[in-house]
Write a structure and sequence with these properties.
By secondary structure, the protein is α/β, with parallel strands linked by helices. It has 19 helices and 26 strands. Strands 3-2-4-1-10-9-11-14 form an eight-stranded antiparallel sheet. Strands 5-6-7-8-12-13 form a six-stranded antiparallel sheet, with helices on one face. The structure holds fructose -6-phosphate.
Length: about 625
């Protein structure tokens, strides 16, 4: 996590640093800070809280300079305090550094540095990087730009873990250096300035070309030209300049009180975008050109692994049901955060779909690299197709959901579900799925955006149910088949933005322990659309009611039985069974949203979270 922006140009860097940092706040918002070189001195401003707090601090205590580096933090080592906010200084106070990643051997390095007389001012792992590089630089008689690059090479060789760093030195004037290993970093080239950032989106409108730095790269920038070296001193590859189209940034909330609500309402549009040009009616199939695989190659696959984290993992779980039923190919789902710690057998007949809306989740990226190492075909499913996962996969599918600012994923989740449904359709059609059955799926998909729009019309009913149950201290969520992962997702949304303990379970597991949790104070949300397991869900509801547990049922329009049995009922448009997970998701997003609003929670920036989890 954590976001970095650095720049070197002809004018004051502060406006760029603060704006760029605001664009990276999705990576963390515990604290923010900036350092600039001004009249051969390093000037630093820091604030606890989001970038707006840093802007206030700079307003109270103005500063300007060139070059400059800045950082928005998601705390890993050391609590959320001004002292722990980046940038950090070296022992001389003349080198300032920002860092994204985790220095795993920081304790050992710190002890060695303390033994050599260094004093530390924070509990962060980052401060050792500033001290190590600064110490090595100060020992070099040359004290010039090359000496700083050498110091970085010398220091970074001792570092275990991951890092993207940017640094400036008061004695080197117009010079900015950066390096990466494991954490993303992009170099941007504008007309009058050069930039370093964790994500190209931070540089939107300022640069013409970008270079995605590679692991072990050290970039040295002087405002006009740049040079790339390697940490181990080997020759760096000739940098590849890329034009990058950063999608128009969703700057406003479009009249909604929160980005999350706006993004929930954007789902019909996002789903239409995900389907555009990908449904081939004549062949009753779906096509994804970015997979770069022929039907023959895809037919040879014997197994599919879907891997991701958090909400994206829930999409994978729902995808398993969809792909297996449409394509009859074995699908396994793996938490990306666990994947590389077990010795998963992989081979060239396995495709690993590496799923991540941001495309930067460290655990998911590690799962991608592990799968590649073991010879599996790796295919990314990302919203940001220019992300590290997007670039490192053998092929991929873009979600086209548009920028998602709310930290709790909403529209990207339903877009992931849709991509997996279309993938099932495509894989089914090159196996056993008949044209007639495929056309039924396509007709259903065609209706999907409209069904989601009609689900959104239930918002007032859902808001009033949220108000009725907002004081609950726990929630249970239950569903069967592909609605089981939706129960998990509903519980995750509730936890993330309301902080109310909530858990999702397969309805059929009720009797195997969960029933012990049922009491008069714990509402259970049961996903019970009209499908082949409807009667089974009714039995579960009866079992909960027999123990006086309040039940909120989410069913299908026209249903008569739920209303008489349950304490609250949300009836959604009648839809083909394979589409009910989409509609239930939207209802659960709204339930969590309205509960959070009643509690006065910071819906778009829930405590302790970050949109992109770039540390393991
Ligand atoms: C929850 C949420 C997270 C992410 C997870 C993976 O609302 O957003 O659980 O789904 O961190 O993120 P991506 O999909 O970017 O890899």
């Amino acid at each position: 996590m954590c976001g970095i922006v650095g720049t070197i140009g002809k004018t004051d860097t502060l406006p760029f640093l603060l704006e760029g940092l605001g664009r990276l706040e999705y990576r963390g918002y515990d604290s923010a800070g900036v350092a600039v070189v001004n009249e051969n001195e390093i000037k630093i401003r820091k604030a606890v809280g989001g970038v707006s707090r840093l802007v206030e601090e700079v307003g109270r205590n103005p500063v300007q300079g060139n070059p400059g580096i800045s950082h928005t933090r998601w705390a890993t080592h050391g609590s959320v305090t001004t002292e722990n906010a980046h940038p950090h200084l070296d022992a001389s106070g003349r080198l300032a550094l920002v860092h994204n990643g985790v220095v795993e051997n920081h304790k050992h390095l710190r002890e060695e540095l303390v033994g050599r007389g260094h004093t530390f001012h924070s509990q962060t792992d980052t401060e050792v990087l500033a001290h190590l590089i600064g110490e090595s630089f100060d020992q070099n008689a040359d004290r010039n730009r090359s000496a700083l690059v050498h110091a970085m090479q010398e220091a970074l060789r001792h570092v275990r873990g991951t890092y993207a760093i940017a640094l400036i030195h008061a004695d080197l004037g117009r010079f900015l250096a950066a390096a990466r290993s494991g954490s993303p970093l992009v170099l941007g080239i504008g007309k009058d300035a050069q930039f370093i950032a964790s994500d190209a989106a931070a540089l939107d409108g300022w640069v013409q070309d970008v270079v995605f730095l590679k692991d072990q790269d050290i970039a040295a920038l002087d405002g006009e030209s740049f040079h790339i070296a390697k940490v181990n001193g080997s020759e760096a590859a000739v940098p590849k300049l890329r034009k990058i189209e950063v999608e128009a940034r969703a700057t406003g909330k479009g009249g909604f009180p929160h980005f999350m609500l706006k993004e929930i309402h954007e789902q019909p549009h996002a789903l239409r975008e995900a389907m555009k040009g990908r449904i081939i009616l004549e062949e009753a199939t779906a096509r994804f050109t970015g997979l770069h695989r022929t039907n023959e190659q895809l037919r040879d696959l014997k197994r599919i692994i879907l891997t991701g984290c958090g909400t994206t993992f829930h999409a994978a779980l729902a995808g398993e049901y969809m792909i297996e039923s449409l394509a009859r190919i074995p699908v396994e789902c793996d938490y990306a955060s666990e994947f590389r710690y077990r010795n998963a057998p992989l081979d060239s007949e396995t495709a690993v779909f590496v799923m991540s809306q941001s495309g930067e989740t460290a655990d998911t990226l590690a799962a991608l690299r592990e799968s590649k190492r073991k010879g599996a075909l790796t295919l990314g499913i990302c919203n940001n197709v220019f992300s590290t996962i997007g670039r490192e996969s053998d092929g991929g599918i873009g979600l086209r959901a548009g920028v998602e600012i709310g930290v709790a994923a909403t529209k990207t989740f339903t877009s992931e579900l849709l991509i997996l449904a279309m993938l099932g359709l495509m894989l089914g059609r090159i196996r056993d799925l008949s044209q007639a059955d495929a056309m039924e799926v396509i007709e259903g998909l065609d209706e999907l955006p409209g069904l989601v729009a009609r689900t959104l019309e239930r918002e007032q009913i859902i808001a009033s149910i949220a108000a009725k149950y907002a004081t609950a201290r726990n929630f249970l969520f239950m569903g069967r088949q592909a609605n089981f992962p939706i129960a998990l997702e509903g519980a995750l949304k509730m936890k993330e933005i309301t902080y109310i303990p909530s858990a999702g379970h397969p309805s059929a597991e009720l009797k195997h322990g969960i029933i012990a949790l049922i009491n008069e104070e714990t509402p259970t949300i049961v996903l019970a659309p009209q499908d082949e397991v409807f009667e089974k869900n009714i039995s579960n509801i009866e079992e909960i009611k027999a123990r006086r547990g309040p039940v909120i049922a989410i069913g299908s329009e026209g249903d008569k039985s739920l209303e008489s049995l349950c304490d609250a009922t949300i009836l959604l448009p009648a839809a083909p069974t394979f589409l009910s997970p989409f509609l239930n998701t939207v209802a659960l997003q709204l339930l969590a949203y309205h509960t959070a609003v009643i509690h006065g929670c910071d819906v778009d920036k829930p405590r302790n979270l970050a949109k992109s989890v770039t540390v393991e």
